Amino acid sequence: MRRGGNVLSKTTGWLTRAEVDATNKPVFNEYAGTTKNGMPNFNRCPKEYVSKTACKQLEFPVKDSEEPVGYVLHLGKHRYFGVYDRKEESIWNKPFYRDINDIPDGYVMRSEITVTRGKRPPFTVKKKDEEPVAVWIRGSSYEVLYNRKSEKTRHKKKTVIMQMKEKAIEKEKFDSELRNNSKVIMFPQKKRG
Predict the structure, then answer these.
(1) DSSP string covering 74-97, please?
(2) Is residue 161 within 8 Å of 103, Cβ to Cβ?
């Protein structure tokens, strides 16, 4: 398999520095993995340049004939991966949420509106030309969101986002109670030996 005139390392898509340098394409040292002020830090790499995985998550997959516009160093693997230009996509005009509590009620994830294994989802199935209304940044991945505010679920089921918000609120209450509790809880320690 060839990309940019070079053989990919073990056909995995990961390139060494020498292979990347031979492509004569831009090399970025940082990607969206770190955050600044609650927003992705795309330091040196434009936010519209996204990895193959992110392209799929944001619903504009990479075509077989498409070439990366540059490469980014993955610190954990000490290899480089390609990034693809998605400046023309309308997704960048949508709101991006990092905190689940900021997501408006009624927004659902793609998994909640997709038929899987013949089972109907609890919300109206995604139409072919329907665009997401927002993006939720979950750690280092993206989750596109769709508006189903006007719908009631068939099974009176809460959306996954609503369930996650409730769990976050419960955890915050529990943590707050622990912080405010003046008693120190001691757990018995096992004897070593």
Answers:
(1) ETTTTEEEEEEE-TT-GGGGS-EE
(2) yes
Q: Among candidates 157, 146, 156, which has minimal Cα distance to 106? A: 146
Write the pLDDT tens digit of every residue in 149-185: 877 655 556 778 878 888 888 888 887 777 776 555 5
Assign 3-class secondary structure to 98-142: CCHHHCCCCEEEHHHHCCECCECCCCCCCCCCCCCCEEEEECCEE
Per-residue pLDDT band at 4 (split at 50, 70, 90): very low
Residue 32, CA atoms < 13 Å, CB-side half-sphere: 19
List, for residues 81-135, the tens digit of each pLDDT value: 899 998 888 888 899 998 888 888 888 888 777 777 677 777 777 777 888 899 9
**Cα–Cα distances in angstroms (integers) from residue 131 to residues 3, 28, 57, 94, 135, in the given order:** 31, 30, 13, 10, 11
Q: What is the rounded end-to-end Cα distance, in angstroms, of the chain? A: 57
Residue extents of the structural domains in the chain:
2-89, 94-157+164-172
* CA–CA gap between residue 8 and residue 26 (Å, rounded): 17
Among the listed residues 147, 173, 172, the one whose alpha carbon sits nearest the alpha carbon of residue 159? 147
